[in-house]
Structures are given as C-alpha cells and as structure tokens.
UniProtKB/TrEMBL annotation, chain A:
Biological processes annotated in GO: isoleucine biosynthetic process; L-valine biosynthetic process
Name of the protein this chain belongs to: Acetolactate synthase
One GO cellular component, as annotated: acetolactate synthase complex
Pathway: Amino-acid biosynthesis; L-isoleucine biosynthesis; L-isoleucine from 2-oxobutanoate: step 1/4; Amino-acid biosynthesis; L-valine biosynthesis; L-valine from pyruvate: step 1/4
Enzyme Commission number(s): 2.2.1.6
Presence of the UniProt keyword NAD in the record: no
InterPro entries: Acetolactate_synth_lsu, AHAS_TPP, DHS-like_NAD/FAD-binding_dom, THDP-binding, Thiamin_PyroP_enz_cen_dom, Thiamin_PyroP_enz_TPP-bd_dom, TPP_enz, TPP_enzyme_TPP-bd
Organism: Pararhodobacter marinus
Family that this chain belongs to: Belongs to the TPP enzyme family.
Pfam families associated with the record: TPP_enzyme_C, TPP_enzyme_M, TPP_enzyme_N
Cofactor: record remark: Binds 1 thiamine pyrophosphate per subunit. Binds 1 Mg(2+) ion per subunit.
N-terminal signal peptide: none
Automatic annotation (TrEMBL), chain B:
Protein name: Acetolactate synthase small subunit
Record keywords, A-Z: Amino-acid biosynthesis, Branched-chain amino acid biosynthesis, Transferase
Domain ACT: from-to ranges: 30-105
UniProt record similarity statement: Belongs to the acetolactate synthase small subunit family.
Organism: Pararhodobacter marinus
Pfam families to which the protein is assigned, alphabetical: ACT_AHAS_ss (PF22629), ALS_ss_C (PF10369)
Quaternary context: Dimer of large and small chains.
Keyword ATP-binding: no
Amino acid sequence: MSQQTNAAQMTGAKMVVQALKDQGVEVVFGYPGGAVLPIYDELFQQNEIRHILVRHEQGATHMAEGYARSTGKPGVVLVTSGPGATNAVTGLTDALMDSIPLVVISGQVPTFLIGTDGFQEADTVGITRPCTKNNWLVKDPDNLAETIHQAFHVATTGRPGPVLVDIPKDVQFADGTYTPPQKAKVDHYQPRVKGDIAAITALVELIEQAERPVFYTGGGVINSGPAACQLLCELADSTGFPVTSTLMGLGAYPASGKNWLGMLGMHGLYEANMAMHDCDLMINVGARFDDRITGRVNAFSPHSTKAHIDIDPSSVNKVIRVDLPIIGDVGHVLEDLLRIWKSRGRKTNKEGLAKWRSQIEEWKAVNCLAYKGSDSIIKPQYAMQRLEALTKGRDRYITTEVGQHQMWAAQFLHFDAPNRWMTSGGLGTMGYGLPASIGVQVAHPDALVINVAGEASWLMNMQEMGTAVQFRAPVKQFILNNERLGMVRQWQQLLHGERYSHSWSESLPDFVKLAEAFGCKGIKVDHPDQLDDAIMEMINYDGPVIFDCLVEKHENCLPMIPSGNAHNDMLLPSDDVRAITGAGAALV
Amino acid sequence: MSPLHIQQGSSKHSAYDLRDPNSEVLERHTLAVIVANEPGVLARVIGLFSGRGYNIESLTVAETDHKGHRSRITIVTVGTPQVIEQIKAQLGRIVPVHEVHDLTVEGASVERELALLKVEGKGDARIEALRLAEIFRANVVDSTLESFVFEMTGAPSKIDAFADLMRPLGLCEIARTGVAALARGGAA
C-alpha cells in the first residue's frame, strides 16, 4: 500500500474533523454526549478548530446562525444523539425559514442499535427532515467525508439553509477512506444563478417608464453577498427609485441613503407601506411576500406591475401573483439589469419620479414613529434612540429577541451595511438573540455586539450567559424590561377585549444579581436622566453586561397594520387605539 | 422541449400563459418525479404534500435506473392551477429531486394502472364474472371452485368500471398499484 492511500485511511471521527478543516471551518458550537465522544476526542487532539461549549443545543444553533449571518460563512454545530438532536430542531427550523446556512453534525446510536429504542436514540433524520434543506444518515465510513462535503455544498448553494448529517457511533470508530473536497462527487444540486436576459430586459423597460416605482428588498440581497448589496445601492441611487426592505433585509441598502424609505410591513413605516400600496412598479429583490409584509392579500398593492427576483422558484407566485418573475441570484441579476439599463441610456421617467418623490415627502411628514415622551419613565422608543445615538459609527452588530423590542429596534436603529443585523424573522423564535449575539461576537471579537431584548424572550435562553462568560464574549444584553410579554399584551388589548391572559411575569429575577451570579456585570436603569450614562457604562465595560432597562409597561408598538388590513389602513400613533374586530381578529 | 417543462432554476413558468392562474377550478395532474434512489427521498416528497396540505390521489414509486440510482415517482394530485404550480416548484427544489414533469400539460401521455380483484361466487354470477372479465381483457391469475382473482391493466377509469360491474357479482377484495405514466412519442 502506498503512503498516500495510508494517509487517506482514518477513523470516521477523524474524517469529520478533517472534513471541517478542509471546508475552512474555524469555529464549532456544540455540546458533547455519548454518541459524539469519538468526534470530541479528535477535537481535543487538534488546535485549528475552536469549539464553543454551549449550555443548551438550541443555543448552539442560534450561535451558529449569528455567526453565519454576520460573516456570510456557514455556521457549524455538533450535538449528540437523541435530546441533543431534538434540542437543535428549533434552530434548524429558524434557519430554514430565514435561509441561513447551517451544518449540524449529530451523533447517533451505533448502526446495530438503530430501531431498537436504544438509550438516547431518536429518529433524527426523520424528525429533522421537514426542518432541513436536506439531511443524511451515514452508515458507511467510506461515504462520510463525501457526505459532509456535500452537506456544505447544499447548505451554501442556491437559497441557503440548514442541513444535518447524522453519524452513528460505530461509523465514528470505524476506519474508512477520506475523500478530500476536490475529489468529492459534484452534487447535481446546482441551482441556476443567472437570470433570463429577456425577462431582465423587460424589467429594464418597466424601469424606464415607471412613474411610481419602489424597490422592495429582502434577506436574499444579503444572502447574495456584499457585492449584491453594492449593486442594489448603485441601481437605487442612479435611478433614484425609493427602497424599502423587510426585517430580514435591513442594511442591504444603507439607512443613511437618500432613497431609503425604512422598513415595511406590519410594524413598518407609514411612507414605506403607502409607497408599496400606491406604486405602479414594484421590484421585489430577494423577498418572499411574507404575510407580515402583504397584509390583506387581495388589497396588496392593487395598481402595480410586480417583478420578482428570487433564486428559489417556489417563492414565485406562492402568495402574490407577479407579472415578471426572474429566477436567479440577486447579485447576478442586478449586474445584468444595471448593465442593460446603462447600455440603453440610463433612462427613467424623470417627471413621474419627481411627483412620486414629493408624494413620499408628504407621507414622511406624517412622522409615523412619533411617541409621547416622558420625563420620569423611560419610553422604549427613547431607549432605542439613545442606544442608536451612542453607538452610531462604532463597529456595531445588533441581534434581537422577538416581540415589541424587536420592532422598535428595527424602526429606530439604522444599518448602513449588510450582515450587521441578526434577528429571527420567519419563525419568530424568542430566545434567539442572546445566543446569536455570542455567535456574532465569536466571529468579530473586537466589535460591539448588542442584543436588544425583552425580558421574557431573554429568559428563554439565559443559560447561555455562562457561555459568554466562559469564552470571554463581551456581549451586551440590552433588555427593555416592561415585565410583560409586550407584543402579546398589545394584541390582547387590541383584539381580545383587554383581557390580559397570562401575559405578565410576576417573579422576574433581579437581573443585576443574575449578572453577578454568572460572573458578569449588571446595570439597572429606570430613569431617563440616567440612561445615557448607563449606556456608556455598558459600552465601555470590557466584558459581558446584562443591562436591565425598566421601561413604560403598556407602550404599544406603532405604526401597525392589523392582520387582515390593507397597507393604506394602518394604526398610527395619532389614532385612538381602538379594538380590532371582525375577520382580522381571527388572523395571527 | 415543452414550454411547461420545469427545470430546476428555470424561469420558464409559462403554464400561466395557457390557463387562468386565478381559477378556483380543481385540476387533476399526473406528475413524474425523477429522484436519486437514496433513503428518505420518498419521505421528503410525501412530507412536502402532507406538510403543505396538498392532495395525493395516487402515488407509485420504484427504481427505474439501477446504474444511475434513479427512481421514478408518479403522483396524481388535485388542486387549483396555482397550487399545482406550487407543488411543482416545491418538488423541484428538494435536493435529491432531479426532474419534475407535469405529464398532464406536457403533451399527450399514457397512464396505466394494474389491479387485482378477488370475486367470490357460484353458478350464474361466477359465469357472468368470467364473461365480463373477457370483455375487459382481465386475466384469471388464481381460481378456486368458488372464487377468481382477476388481473387487469388499464386507465384508472377502466378499472373503476370493471370493479363497479364485479361488485354485485361478489367482489370482495381489490388491490391497485396506482398510476404509472409516460409521455407519448419519442425520447423527451
């Protein structure tokens, strides 16, 4: 046997580590257990891959999501069989909904025990099939390396998403031949990235004529990469078309850009939603007409021609019928679009656009984010404004939990670059933000990483503060504490006759003491006058901080398009907030 | 290539040009799905239908290319035009799915199903059953003095018709394979 073939022979566990190295993996988020011990043994004997020990496998998946979203690289998770894998299900589903590339490696009971209800056995590929892009159970060590390379290919190609590779313990021990990535069979999975030129030319013609155009951009722009974001900026700025974005797409077009309308949707800005409703040309770039965006489907932007650029054909015509679908990668399509538009003389309908812009200025004058200030109580909006003012211009990353605070963060914090905003959009996973912030901090050790949280969401994965302290991730947990499940409370006020069923917490922990118990710093603030100093103290502290910001308990998050309403039928801060009845009350 | 051939990543959604996209009329479509023959593919396809609330009227699956590790899944489904388009797009993005063909709109196709029918009876009923079986070109594959097992192949409607006739003559059990279908004409 030649030396070369000898070198390719190794145990399954060694192959896993070798494959991760060959894929350029720097960090793995994981938790050991019986069925992954051989892999942990291999991790112990090397120094190239860093392992972050989490406190719960759900935390590992969200950390990997934060890592992936802030770097554009796939996040890698290592968990054991049974409960290790089932605990990862929420994170997998979250990543599937938000198109985040994750590679989860799970241990499994030995092949001869599969199907016998062995200790810590679960049908992991069965359980995770609907919440992964694809998954594999590897029974032959000779296939292991190739499967892992395929897993990385599938997770990062086309519309990104989570994948899982389930590896029985005996396969980890067994010897097999390692296949390097260059020799791995190229998977047939090669989604098309170039858009149809005829369709792109048709869109250019629409752009040249449009009187009331709007770009409606989503997470697909960010997934396509910084170059795609750059192209979007160039296109928007040279055409002068206004840009609005979904929650997932914030940062793709800079919030300081002259064509920025702000976020759209249920808690989006008045001017953004009105522009969507009244436009004559809607250009959807990498968004998917989510129900939080469209409101009532049959009243959605009734007078517009709709173009939709998406890499996933199943996103087209799923919810809203579009006139001009373009299947392809945002970056590639925008590049062709710009090139064709320029070669045809950079034409736009200047007269129509001027009128459109003055209309938009009128909508902006409504000042839809106005709120009643207070000298004695911290308004959550005020807290966001101060956080924005005091962290602006820094190397800043923001994660959030889910609820009112998430929407206030999206409304009041401004993002001028992509990959700086990590939030659970599709699945709406409370407990996402804290672990995600750790994942971001691991990828960007010197950056200022802030998790804007509500106290209820934050408690869902608070055990991960232990991870932050152990791995010296100086994440700042900015908790808007209203002692309520704020968004639930708001809906109960508006939709359920002010019957506040189980939407408040009576025995919240003392967050400052909790911080001390974890070995980090706690700061509590309850008066607007102290807020700035407290935020500065948080920023300047070299280590993790739990920031307990006591805010107005019954503030409503506005503007709001109640479910079942059209875009031009919003609740504004100036309206008397009234109960919502009828069909809308049945919607979520 | 037919304009309705859905390729992975293709932007050709020309089915909309031919049919009213907003129609609420339910259509029955026969889909041929060529998949990699690997564990879990069928579960992924079926899971898609149950998870998203689509209908399956009939489903057959078998390996059709041993060397190339390909299986062919034939699905008969019912839905509005928009739902049928969604089903095709959703099937097309499953990683181990190689091709999705809508045989109902891609041109003429032949559909066949095989059924085994057990008919118990004596005297005239037994003779009548045998006579009808001849008319329908069903074969007797098992016989006792008081029963027959008929084998018949045909379009599902033909099998329905035969089963209806056999019911008063003592039909007691029926096994059907579900539809297998191919486009007519030369290689696609």
